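Page 47, continued from p. 46.
Same chain as before, 434 aa.
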Amino acid sequence: MLKSVKVQKDQVMTIFVSQHTAGQLRQTIQIDDHQINADLTQAAGGTDTGPDPHDLFDAAIATCKAMTLQLYAQRKNIPLHEVKVAIERNDSAEQKGLYQLHVSLELTGDLTAEQRQQLLAIADKCPIHKLVTQADVQVHTSLKPEALPAAAAEPLIIKPQERDIGFVIKRLLPAKAQRRVGPFIFVDHMGPATFAPGTTEGDVRQHPHIGLATVTYLFSGAMYHSDTLGTRQRIEPGAINLMRAGRGIAHSERIPADIRDQQLQVEGMQIWLVLPENEAESEPSFQHYPAALFPAIQVPGSEIRVLLGEYFSQSSVVTFPSRCCYAELKLDPCSSLALPKSEQQLAIYLAKGSLKQPALNAGQMLVMTEDLTVVAGDDGAHFMVLGGDQVQDPVLLNWNFVARSQQRLAQAKEEWNSGYFPRLADDPEWIPAP
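Result:
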C-alpha cells in the first residue's frame, strides 16, 4: 500500500506500508524516519502485535487534539500544564455510514472556567478533526506498474551530512536513501580535528545506549572511554573497541590531555551495529582489542586489515553475534584490487584519496550491487568496507537507542532522564534524551 499526503505546496510526503512477515497480516508503516507496526487481533485473524487501522485513525484524531491545545495554549499564554485525551469508539453502525467517536479531555493547570471552555472549542478545530468532518476527502487507488526486467541496478552513492558535535563529523548512515547496510545502522567519520589545551572541546559527555553495539576505530590521535561497567580505556589508532549495549549501558568519550597539549589530530570511524533480536536485551559488555591483533594483509599495491567478520579469507579475532564484515583497505596510487565476492550487503566508504573505478570521492559511501574491482586515483585510496547479512524489520533507531518497538524506545528515554538508567557515578555531566 502507498499513501501520499500533501504537506506543503509542491511537496508530497509518501508513507510506505509493507507486509512485515509473509503469511501474516502484520504491516510495517514507514513514515520518513519512523516505523510503526499495524496488525489485527487474533480473533480477527492477526497476531495482535500492533494497533489496527481503526485504532490508528482514532489515535490520529486524539493526538491532533492534544497537540493543537498545547500549541494554542503556548501562543495565548494559557497556563495549560498537561493534556490527556481519552477517545471511545462506537462503530456498531459503521456499515450504515455512522462512525461515532466520543472524546474526553483532561486539562491540568491553573485554568479559569473561561479558559477551559476556550480550549474545549479549539479542540474541535484541530486539522485532523476538520479533515474528517469538513473536508472533501478523496482517495485515489491505482496499481503500481510492474517493474520491467532491467540491467543491474545503479550503485547508490551516499553523500555525507556534515554535523558539528563539538567537532565536525561526516554522517553516512542513517541516510534517507539507505537506512542501514547489513547490521550497520550508524556510520560517522570523525575529524580530523585538533582541540585546545585545558578545554573540554570534543569531549562527548556520558550518554546511554540500548540494543546496539558501538565500534570505535581511530586513524590518528586518541580518545578515553569510560562506561558504567567500570571500564576505563585509552583508545588509540588501529585498535578495535567493541561495546555491546544490550539492555543498557552509558559511556563517555573524552580527548586526553596529552593529545590536546601536543595538538595531535583526532580522526577515525564511529559505527553502530544492530544486535540480533535475541541479543538485544543481553548483558552489556566492553572489549578492547589492541592494534597488534589486526596485522595487515599485504597484496601488491594494497594492504587490508580485517576488523570484524571475514574478508579476503581472513577472520577477525573480534566476535560478533551476527555475520558481518568491517575492513580497512589502503591502495597505492593508481593500483587496482578485485574485491571478494560476497552474499552479504556491503558498502565502501572512502575516507581519503579517490577512486577512479568506481568513481568515488573522499567522504562518499557506495552501496555495492555487484562484484567490484576498485582502481585508486592518483592520490591513492583509503577506504572501509562494511556490511553483513540484512536485518529483518522492525528495527527502530531513535537518538542513541535501537529497539524493536516504540514502547521500548520510550522506556529507555524515560529511564535515562529520570536517573533510573545506569550512570557513571564519578562523572556529573550527562546528555539528556530529547
